[in-house]
Amino acid sequence: MSLPERQSQAERRSRSEDALLDATAELVAERGVHGASLASIGGRAGVSRGLPTHHFGSKDVLLARLADRAQSGIGQEMQADRTRAARDRRLSALDEVLLTVDTYLEMFEDPAPDQRALLVMWGSTFPSGASVDGIADAERRSYQGLSQLIVSGQADGSVRPDVDPVATAVLLHGLMRGLAALKLTDSGLTDMRGVRQACNQWIVSSLAPDRATASSG
């Protein structure tokens, strides 16, 4: 008899935590990491000022959860785009790299609060000694995912064998983060569609095997 009540409590807690994470994303995007206090987060979420501490224990834990949610959301969107593209044709690993970069840049043409907050949190780690729990893990997952795609591309022949997977993953990640940050700080940035096309061309020219070499092999 008590099980439905426990489930209801769990659902209420989940909704409350989601509301606090939503409020955190909005405030971090608007005011930066230091400008988003636990009290202001509770106020934005329309709950008591002590509820963020009750649910998360500290601001660091709350930010880490937000970073994880934001990165997971980006990953899910990228996977959904790859799944849609794979319905029409067989994707090489290089195709997946191109889709990953393009989907990321497209999201930041009109970013959601979670996505804006993720970049703000990333930028807040630039000062020496500063850190945001969860950002380092999010960055590491991104590097690893790109690096694994490049290794897969070398296995399926869509990526040159002399490419360094780790170094290239870092370059691609920096390209994605840097362009997204530029778009956030300069809404008048040149047409992002053209930027995305240029990125696509650069990645293909940098990673794809030379046609003459590929045909002779």
Number of domains: 2
How confident is the prediction overall: mean pLDDT? 86
The end-to-end distance, rounded to whole angstroms, is: 69 Å
What's the SSE pattern? Answer: HHHHHHHHHH
Number of helices: 10
Characterize the overall form: elongated
CATH class descriptor name of the largest domain: Mainly Alpha
Q: What structural category arises from helix and sheet content?
A: mainly alpha
CATH architecture of the largest domain: Orthogonal Bundle
The largest pleated sheet is described as: none
Helical percentage: over 70%
Q: Total strand count, please?
A: 0
What do these coordinates show?
With 217 residues, this protein is mainly α. The chain has two domains: 1-57, Orthogonal Bundle (Arc Repressor Mutant, subunit A), CATH 1.10.10; 66-210, Tetracycline Repressor, domain 2 (Orthogonal Bundle), CATH 1.10.357. The protein is built from ten helices and no strands. The chain has helices at residues 3-31, 38-45, 51-56, 59-88, 93-107, 113-124, 135-156, 165-185, 192-207, 211-216. Helix 1 (3-31) crosses helix 2 and helix 5 (93-107) packs antiparallel against helix 7 (135-156). The longest helix has 30 residues, at 59-88. The chain starts with a helix and ends with a helix.
